[in-house]
């Protein structure tokens, strides 16, 4: 069971991800959500989740900037609208890189990766 | 130091030249000198076509002959060497009057008669006949002078003697006729030149017209290139948001889809028209903002204010939407809450003022980061020349201000 925080500046994206993850409630337990890098930073340091779903393009602080400032590093699954950050995401040792809109089959593969 | 002389690319003989280091002997090789002479000669020959050679020959001949005759005659007039020379004054006067009558005949013909004739041969025929009549008229006057003037009469007597001298019984009966032929030829030549210059004028104005058309086409093409396309990222993001809405809020998802298709219809349809009314442009802006509103939720509030009476004024398509898009991309998306966009359209004397404000971070000093303001100012320049302005306010009320003249577009037919 992974304690999870969802971090995305678009409320619609978060609500959709919630709905998709509701099929994996045995694996993923959503404990909180954040709407920008700053908020995400605070909540991660405070609650120390096992996993985060992270958007990249956010106001105040981007996803990468937030990761750079973390003292505690959870597992990261990037979920973003742009594919140009894939290589960098790979360097960040993330679990996966999901392109929005997230497809159900693709998410299934990600969850399988997590379970290993 | 070994300096190499660079080949002279402007001269035609460059390909024949050998590059010579300046330190060596600078006299060109003999072979090279000959070839230079030969190509120069060839070039000159090319510029002398046979037609030109013939014209030059004839013209030179007659010009020299004519001028010499004038010179001789004039000298005789000024320093008469004999009584005959004195009497040549009559000839001089006769020539003047003949020339003058030719001139008058030509002018009258071109001004009044020429336009009624359609065929070329008819023009020349009528011209000759008309000139002949004029000359005969003048002859009558000359004869009248002869009859009136007693003292000057001897001059005219002498003139008529010259005109009716018979050189040979078998030759031309009266070379008086020959003296008539010359004015005929002269008026025909002059008329021909006049026709040609008229043709040239027409050709020039035709070319000018075509050039103007080409300019118009080029402007149109440039305008088309600058035409805004829907930003693919925007489309992508919108579809993402719609995906998120479909289950949670189907009505909103439906509305968003409709707004998106409205926006697309505006870019893809009727692209041969570069203009539409302010009301239509605001429709596009409203569609765009409503879509972004769904994406940003409470992070965005917007308002549009249009001064009444300005709804139907024509402006270039997609003048405002890209600026609003900028306001979202570089402004609202960078702040976490309370984003505001304000669009105000007002009238200021003869100008229409568009002001788009957002409360995002200030514009960067060098306006980098793909603001796309360049293409908008290019479009304004193409359409309005220097009459439109684009200002950037980077202070408390951050905004882009565009001013365009009100009247221009109604008169244009782009």
UniProtKB/TrEMBL annotation, chain B:
<feature type="transmembrane region" description="Helical">
    <location>
        <begin position="124"/>
        <end position="141"/>
    </location>
</feature>
<dbReference type="GO" id="GO:0016020">
    <property type="term" value="C:membrane"/>
</dbReference>
<keyword id="KW-0808">Transferase</keyword>
<protein>
    <submittedName>
        <fullName>Histidine kinase</fullName>
    </submittedName>
</protein>
<feature type="transmembrane region" description="Helical">
    <location>
        <begin position="92"/>
        <end position="112"/>
    </location>
</feature>
<feature type="transmembrane region" description="Helical">
    <location>
        <begin position="52"/>
        <end position="72"/>
    </location>
</feature>
<feature type="transmembrane region" description="Helical">
    <location>
        <begin position="176"/>
        <end position="194"/>
    </location>
</feature>
<keyword id="KW-0418">Kinase</keyword>
<keyword id="KW-1133">Transmembrane helix</keyword>
<dbReference type="InterPro" id="IPR036259">
    <property type="entry name" value="MFS_trans_sf"/>
</dbReference>
<feature type="domain" description="Signal transduction histidine kinase internal region">
    <location>
        <begin position="221"/>
        <end position="300"/>
    </location>
</feature>
<dbReference type="InterPro" id="IPR010559">
    <property type="entry name" value="Sig_transdc_His_kin_internal"/>
</dbReference>
<dbReference type="Pfam" id="PF06580">
    <property type="entry name" value="His_kinase"/>
</dbReference>
<dbReference type="GO" id="GO:0000155">
    <property type="term" value="F:phosphorelay sensor kinase activity"/>
</dbReference>
<keyword id="KW-0472">Membrane</keyword>
<dbReference type="InterPro" id="IPR050640">
    <property type="entry name" value="Bact_2-comp_sensor_kinase"/>
</dbReference>
<dbReference type="InterPro" id="IPR036890">
    <property type="entry name" value="HATPase_C_sf"/>
</dbReference>
<keyword id="KW-0812">Transmembrane</keyword>
């Amino acid at each position: 069971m992974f304690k999870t925080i969802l971090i995305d500046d678009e409320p619609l994206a978060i609500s959709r991800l919630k709905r998709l993850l509701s099929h994996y409630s045995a694996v993923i337990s959503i404990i909180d959500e954040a709407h920008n890098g700053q908020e995400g930073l605070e909540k991660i340091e405070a609650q120390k989740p096992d996993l985060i779903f992270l958007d990249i393009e956010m106001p105040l602080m981007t996803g990468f900037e937030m990761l750079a400032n973390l003292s505690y590093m959870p597992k990261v699954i990037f979920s973003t609208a742009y594919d140009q950050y894939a290589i960098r995401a790979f360097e960040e040792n993330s679990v996966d890189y999901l392109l929005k809109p997230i497809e159900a089959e693709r998410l299934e593969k990600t969850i399988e990766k997590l379970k290993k | 130091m070994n300096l190499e002389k660079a080949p002279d690319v402007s001269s035609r003989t460059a390909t024949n030249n050998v590059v010579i280091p300046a330190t060596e002997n600078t006299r060109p090789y003999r072979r090279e000198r000959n070839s230079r002479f030969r190509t120069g000669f060839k070039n000159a020959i090319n510029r002398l076509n046979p037609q030109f050679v013939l014209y030059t020959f004839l013209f030179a001949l007659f010009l020299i002959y004519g001028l010499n005759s004038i010179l001789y005659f004039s000298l005789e007039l000024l320093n008469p060497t004999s009584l005959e020379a004195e009497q040549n004054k009559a000839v001089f006067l006769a020539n003047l009057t003949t020339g003058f009558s030719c001139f008058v005949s030509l002018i009258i013909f071109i001004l009044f008669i020429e336009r009624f004739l359609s065929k070329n041969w008819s023009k020349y025929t009528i011209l000759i006949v008309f000139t002949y009549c004029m000359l005969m008229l003048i002859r009558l006057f000359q004869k009248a002078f002869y009859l009136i003037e007693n003292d000057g009469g001897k001059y005219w007597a002498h003139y008529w003697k010259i005109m009716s001298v018979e050189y040979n019984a078998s030759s031309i009966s009266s070379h008086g006729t020959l003296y008539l032929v010359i004015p005929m030829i002269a008026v025909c030549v002059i008329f021909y030149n006049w026709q040609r210059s008229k043709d040239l004028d027409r050709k020039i104005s035709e070319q000018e017209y075509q050039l103007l058309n080409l300019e118009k086409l080029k402007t149109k093409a440039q305008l088309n290139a600058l035409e805004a396309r829907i930003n693919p990222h925007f489309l992508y993001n919108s579809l993402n948001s719609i995906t998120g809405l479909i289950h949670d809020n189907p009505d909103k998802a439906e509305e968003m889809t409709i707004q998106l298709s409205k926006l697309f219809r505006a870019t893809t349809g009727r692209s041969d028209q570069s203009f539409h009314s302010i009301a239509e442009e605001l429709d596009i802006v409203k569609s765009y903002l409503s879509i972004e509103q769904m994406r940003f939720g409470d992070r965005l509030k917007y308002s549009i204010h249009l001064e009444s009476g300005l709804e139907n004024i024509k402006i270039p398509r997609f003048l405002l939407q890209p600026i609003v898009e900028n306001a979202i991309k570089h402004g609202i998306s960078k702040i976490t809450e309370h984003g505001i966009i304000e669009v105000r359209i007002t009238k200021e004397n003869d100008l229409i003022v568009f002001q788009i404000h957002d409360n995002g971070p200030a514009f960067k000093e060098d306006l980098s980061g793909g603001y796309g303001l360049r293409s908008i100012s290019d479009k304004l320049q193409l359409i309005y020349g220097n009459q439109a302005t684009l200002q950037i306010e980077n202070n408390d009320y951050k905004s882009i201000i565009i001013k365009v003249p009100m009247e221009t577009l109604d008169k244009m037919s782009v």
